[in-house]
Amino acid sequence: MSAVQVEGKRFTLHGDSSSYSFYVSEHGDLIHSHFGGASHSDPSPAPVIPDGGWLQGNSTAYGRAQREFPDNGNGDFGLPAVRVRHGAGTTVTRFLYDSHQVVEGKKGLEGLPATFGDGKSATTLLITLKDKVARLTATLSYAVFPAHNAFVRSFKIYNGSDQDVVVEAAASFSVDLGHAAEGRDMLQLSGEWAREAQIITRRVQSGFQGFQSLTGFSSHLHNPFLGLVSPHTTETTGDAYGFSLVYTGSFSASVERNATGIDRVLIGMNPLQLDWTVSPGKSFTSPEAVAVYSDKGLGQMSRHFHRLYRDHLSKSSWTHKDRPVLINNWEATYFDFDEEKIYNIAEKASEIGCSLAVLDDGWFGTKYPRNSDSAGLGDWKVNENKLRGGLDALVQRIGKLKNDRGESIKFGLWVEPEHVNPASELFEAHPEWTLHAGANGQEYPRVQQRNQYILDLSQVAVQDHLIKVIGDILSLTAISYVKWDCNKAMEQLPTPSVGHAYILGLYRVVDTLTTRFPDILWEGCASGGGRFDPGLLQYWPGSWTSDCTDPVDRLHIQTGTSLVYPPSSMSGHVSASPNHQTGRETPLAFRAHVAMLCGSFGLELDPNHFSAQEKKDIPGLIHLSERISPYIIQGDLYRLARPEQTNWPAFLYLKPDGSGVLLAYQIHNKINTSSPAIRLQGLEPGRTYKVDGVEYKEDTLLSAGLRFPWKGDYQSKVVFIDRV
Ligand code: GLA
């Protein structure tokens, strides 16, 4: 059966174990009829309350329907997915069905990151709606990736009138889920700097509940992901819906329960920062959002996202490859280094098995040397007082080092191109390149964060400048890895829609550079995980997950992040004990085993301060991380026990060949407590597996599980599971 089934004006998109259906009503409205488990015949229609004058109350029949693309006015009093100001200023629209088309595959979106797939992996249904009064056309694009039970939507508004219109709201995905007798819970990933992606759950109540980012970026505060689950959904059972926005700018996500029990889910650009003028004959394209359905709990929802984002979103040549083990000097030196210190760190790191040395913040600025975060940002010229002989000389010198396997040490560099310190040559030359607001010839006081301003990437001149300066560094020096940081939000927008124009500019810059330097391993960073979003995942394989490197906190941050993002896209580093952020002391093995849950493993340590024991243990841990890497990069993640639910979190990664690795932890010692069983998942029925030399039947590992003799705080265990 085709993944898109069309019967007259009834449409169903089929995932392997899910379906999404809607139809055109007799009036031409798109009405949603089902999103959930597989359904191969017409769902019984929601009892329709007849449209007539006898109906009392505020909601009209129109407002009581499950609307597929809720626009504004007409008696639907919920938040609209689209609001366009047109004519003399009205925001009422009525988009009615005009035509449809089914297209093999899934194309990208012009200027925006998007999922992609050929005819074997995806099918697209295009629905054209028209508002004849406003003379607007809305084209809804629905793509289904059946193997991932993923439904992707975006839309385009074409202005066929002879006047400008303004798009004021654009929720990429909107779905009116029918009344669920048992209710629903909403999930979000929220936090702040160094505490990203904490899983927050709440019961959906009547009315509006949601969260948003107004920072100009996806942000630490809330990730652009909304989950919706049945009240008893677990990692392995129950309904789980995930909605994920492929966008890096301000967003808003909400569930609104109306008077009749329908839950309207909206996720898209934040309407408070959308005021997008579309001239006659032009169009506006919304970012896309992905909705995934799982009938087997959150674990399966996450695996759908992981595979989709690895195989059909990320374009990086590194996405499916093992990453080099790196050493980053940030927590070892902060701004206080010279070329000898960096060389020395690289040399010692090569001796213990690292293969990439990363030079973090502080290497640039001549007139305004970057010796703290108060100067130099924007001036991407090496500071030769710090790095005598220049960057290239240092890179070449480090390149002659070999690690214990005889591989030359590669070099990586930190940049933060989108920002500028007022104390910089760039700001002196181009104060007009920063984002700021004013009126009547006066400026509001500019807002600084970390002593910096943000460049206005909506300006093509700024985009071109960044492409040139960063492109020049990468062409002139043998850089194998770039950490692209972003440490400030957009506090002050000249006009609301500059935020979106900035993001489009950012995509142009990042797309140009990553296309020009495809072999470089790019890593996103925004004071840690402040821009861990599917938008940027299109261009690079992953992101620095958090500036918090404390392993206990990291277990929470990484688990939350893994709800949506593949472990291959996360980076984890072993840092010093006591931890610089939390002051917590933890054993080396525990720190390393937590960092190994991520696709990109490294050290954020000064090798000059290693104890004799650390010197002995670190090479083995690095080799272990390399052995584990293929499981993390290619495997499926099973969250066997989550850290916010237990003292004994455990994670299993299963490779496509059926073998696995289990990483298990005891956070605190518990006196007089027996070890809880860790029950595995995802093994092949009937097969035998070898664990630590002992053979077990699959059902034993699933049912009885494994137990480990835990002793002490911050303990961890890594176990390979081989299929016999
Ligand atoms: C941000 C990053 C850190 C580090 C510093 C450098 O905070 O998240 O990893 O690169 O900037 O200033």
UniProtKB/TrEMBL annotation:
<dbReference type="InterPro" id="IPR031705">
    <property type="entry name" value="Glyco_hydro_36_C"/>
</dbReference>
<feature type="domain" description="Glycosyl hydrolase family 36 N-terminal">
    <location>
        <begin position="28"/>
        <end position="277"/>
    </location>
</feature>
<feature type="binding site">
    <location>
        <position position="525"/>
    </location>
    <ligand>
        <name>substrate</name>
    </ligand>
</feature>
<feature type="binding site">
    <location>
        <position position="450"/>
    </location>
    <ligand>
        <name>substrate</name>
    </ligand>
</feature>
<feature type="binding site">
    <location>
        <position position="547"/>
    </location>
    <ligand>
        <name>substrate</name>
    </ligand>
</feature>
<dbReference type="InterPro" id="IPR002252">
    <property type="entry name" value="Glyco_hydro_36"/>
</dbReference>
<keyword id="KW-0378">Hydrolase</keyword>
<dbReference type="InterPro" id="IPR050985">
    <property type="entry name" value="Alpha-glycosidase_related"/>
</dbReference>
<keyword id="KW-0326">Glycosidase</keyword>
<dbReference type="InterPro" id="IPR017853">
    <property type="entry name" value="GH"/>
</dbReference>
<dbReference type="Pfam" id="PF16875">
    <property type="entry name" value="Glyco_hydro_36N"/>
</dbReference>
<comment type="similarity">
    <text>Belongs to the glycosyl hydrolase.</text>
</comment>
<feature type="binding site">
    <location>
        <begin position="360"/>
        <end position="361"/>
    </location>
    <ligand>
        <name>substrate</name>
    </ligand>
</feature>
<dbReference type="Pfam" id="PF16874">
    <property type="entry name" value="Glyco_hydro_36C"/>
</dbReference>
<dbReference type="InterPro" id="IPR031704">
    <property type="entry name" value="Glyco_hydro_36_N"/>
</dbReference>
<dbReference type="InterPro" id="IPR013785">
    <property type="entry name" value="Aldolase_TIM"/>
</dbReference>
<feature type="active site" description="Nucleophile">
    <location>
        <position position="485"/>
    </location>
</feature>
<dbReference type="Pfam" id="PF02065">
    <property type="entry name" value="Melibiase"/>
</dbReference>
<feature type="binding site">
    <location>
        <begin position="483"/>
        <end position="487"/>
    </location>
    <ligand>
        <name>substrate</name>
    </ligand>
</feature>
<comment type="function">
    <text>Hydrolyzes a variety of simple alpha-D-galactoside as well as more complex molecules such as oligosaccharides and polysaccharides.</text>
</comment>
<protein>
    <recommendedName>
        <fullName>Alpha-galactosidase</fullName>
        <ecNumber>3.2.1.22</ecNumber>
    </recommendedName>
</protein>
<dbReference type="InterPro" id="IPR013780">
    <property type="entry name" value="Glyco_hydro_b"/>
</dbReference>
<feature type="domain" description="Glycosyl hydrolase family 36 C-terminal">
    <location>
        <begin position="648"/>
        <end position="720"/>
    </location>
</feature>
<feature type="binding site">
    <location>
        <position position="193"/>
    </location>
    <ligand>
        <name>substrate</name>
    </ligand>
</feature>
<dbReference type="InterPro" id="IPR038417">
    <property type="entry name" value="Alpga-gal_N_sf"/>
</dbReference>
<dbReference type="GO" id="GO:0016052">
    <property type="term" value="P:carbohydrate catabolic process"/>
</dbReference>
<dbReference type="GO" id="GO:0004557">
    <property type="term" value="F:alpha-galactosidase activity"/>
</dbReference>
<feature type="active site" description="Proton donor">
    <location>
        <position position="547"/>
    </location>
</feature>
